[in-house]
Structure prediction request, 356 residues.
Amino acid sequence: MREQSPDSDLDGTPTRDAWWPGARASRGLLALTLVSLFIHAPRVEAYPIAPVTLWPLTQEAELIVWADVEQLRIAPRERDEDGMPFDGGEIATLKIRETWKGSVRPGERVEVRFSSDIICPAPPWYGAGRPVIAFLAQGDGRWWTVGMSYGTRHPKNPTDVDAYRRVVTAARDAQARAARSGLPGKVVDLQQERIEWQVHAALHPATRWDGLYELSQGTAAVRQARRQQLARGFAKQPSFDQTVSLMLTTLRGFPNKDVDRTVANVLETVLAEQGAPYWAFTAFDLLRERHGEKPERRTPWYKMVPPKSPIEAKAEYARSLARDWLSFKQRHGLKPRRLVLPDAALVQGPAGRPPF
Prediction:
C-alpha cells in the first residue's frame, strides 16, 4: 500500500468503476474465471483483483456458511482438454454450523476446491480445525470460493460472528427485496438500501472495512444523520487498522470532538505499540486537517530508495511520523491516552499474515 496525503486516492484503492470485477459479469462468473486461471493452469501468473466487500460477496455467492474446517487434503491430479496433467489444488471439508444463504443444513458437510499456492491475488484460507465464514459458488459441479481471500473471513470472537451474521443477512435480504421489486407494489431503491447497509456494516470493527471501502469514495451521498451515526459508532468501538483513515475520509467536513479524541487515542496506541503502519500516515494527516492544519504532501518511503535502502527509508519515515506526532500534540495541547489493542487474529495465513 502507498502512504499518501489526504488529497490523493486513499491507500491506492481502485475507483468505484473498478472496485468489483463481478459487476460486469453474470452470477458466479468471477469464481469460475478464477478457477480456470488458477486451478486449471500448469503455471500461475500473478495479478491483483479489486477489493471485494461483503455486499457483492453475498450477491455472487450461492452458499454462505459459518463452518468448521474439518479436514484438508490434496485433490487428485486431473487432465486438461489436451490430456496434460495438472494439480487439482486442495479440498477443504467444511462442517456447517450455520447457513446464511443457500439450502445446506447445519451438520452437513461441503467440500470446497481451492489452491493455497497462489501468491497474487491472495488465495482463500482454510485452516484445519479452524472456523471460517465462506462465500461459495458452484462450477463444474464443485464448490469454489468467491472473491479469493475476500471470500473467507475469520472472526476473532463471538461478537465478531454476530456482526458478520447481521451484515451478511442484511445484504441478502436487501438484495432479495430488490429482486422482487419488479412486482406491483414492490419498488425498492437499491442504491439507498446499499448506503444504509454500508453505514450499518461500518458500525462494528469486524465489518467496518466492508462498509467504508465504497462509502468513503462517495461521501457526497452520506447524509449528516448517517455521519453522526458513523461518528458515534467509531467513538464507541474504535478500530486500529486502515479503516481509521477510511472513516476520517467519510467524515471529512463533519466536525466531531469524540471522533477527534478517539483517533488521537488510537494513533497514540498504535505508534507506541506497533510502530508506524502504512495507514497511520494518512490517518494522521486527516486528523491534522480536522484541527485546521494543511498537511503537505508526503514523499512515500519507496521514493527514498535509492540512495537509502528500503529498511533505512522505512525507519526514517517512521521516525518522521513520531516527530510530527509529538509536535502536533504540543501545538494543540493534546494528551491522548493509550487504549487496549484488540486481540490478534485467531488464525494466521501464510508467513504469519492474517488470512484477510
Remarks:
- The chain is about 40% helix and 15% strand.
- The first helix runs from residue 29 to 38.
- Residues 124 and 149 are 4 Å apart (CA to CA).
- The radius of gyration is 22 Å.
